[in-house]
Design goal:
By secondary structure, the protein is mostly helical. The protein has one domain. 85% of the residues lie in helices and 0% in strands. The chain contains 9 helices and no strands. Helix 8 runs antiparallel to helix 9.
């Protein structure tokens, strides 16, 4: 019993440190994405280089998708330094493609939507961290809803209707709000099993940061549909 109590106390000491690493990496990745987007959007040369040729733009999008799938599958097999570089490169690449939002929306509305997203994300992440309710049952429901959202969005690209656009927008906000709380609770549980300073802990914190980073970015993009002022 004493050994178990000591292990439990040790886990409670380690957990905040692990979560600090997760949010630190996520914040750094978001900063890189935001700065990259702003820099690209402010350069006519870079905008022309990226968006004048559809092959270049769609090539970047495909590279992004492949890279994030690769990271999700292989990050735990990499050295922690390599995993960090890949993660930050993905954040940079995401910033390049997301610069398109500055062409579609005013800078002021992008900034205000970012703040709204940050507040919503923060509230749901805190909820996921402190709630005593087991959110594991949300996982399958949210994943199935996300799959349905992806299918509906792709179909609506070819057979566009405004009603489907707004339905998927509402669904996207709800799904990623839920995923933020669910992923935070899951990451908290994982953090309690980590050995501080170990290579595994470093890579796990990066993988967890990637998960929350994706939740934030997707929530921001769906929020932008409601709060963004189009040019």
């Amino acid at each position: 019993m004493l050994d178990s109590a000591l292990l439990l106390n040790k886990s409670k000491v380690l957990q905040p440190g692990f979560m600090a690493k997760v949010y630190g990496w996520m914040s750094l990745a978001l900063a890189i994405t935001a700065v990259t987007s702003a820099v690209v959007a402010s350069s006519d040369f870079l905008l022309s280089l990226i968006f004048a040729n559809k092959i270049t733009f769609y090539g970047l999008l495909i590279a992004q998708v492949l890279l994030v799938l690769y990271l999700g599958a292989k990050m735990m097999d990499m050295a922690s330094g390599t995993a960090a570089l890949f993660f930050l490169f993905y954040a940079f690449l995401n910033g390049v493609t997301l610069s398109v939002i500055f062409m579609a929306y005013t800078a002021a509305s992008v900034a205000s939507t970012f703040l709204i997203t940050a507040g919503t994300f923060g509230a749901m992440s805190i909820y996921g961290f402190v709630t005593k309710k087991d959110l594991s049952s949300w996982g399958n429901i949210l994943m199935m809803a996300l799959l349905g959202l992806i299918i509906a969005s792709v179909v609506n690209m070819f057979f566009y209707t405004e009603m489907v656009y707004w339905i998927t927008s509402c669904a996207g906000v709800l799904i990623f709000v839920g995923l933020t709380a669910y992923d935070t609770q899951k990451i908290k549980a994982i953090g309690m099993m980590q050995e501080e300073g170990s290579e595994t802990e470093k890579k796990t914190s990066l993988l967890a940061a990637l998960s929350l980073y994706l939740d934030f970015i997707n929530l921001f993009l769906y929020m932008l549909r409601f709060f963004g002022n189009r040019r």
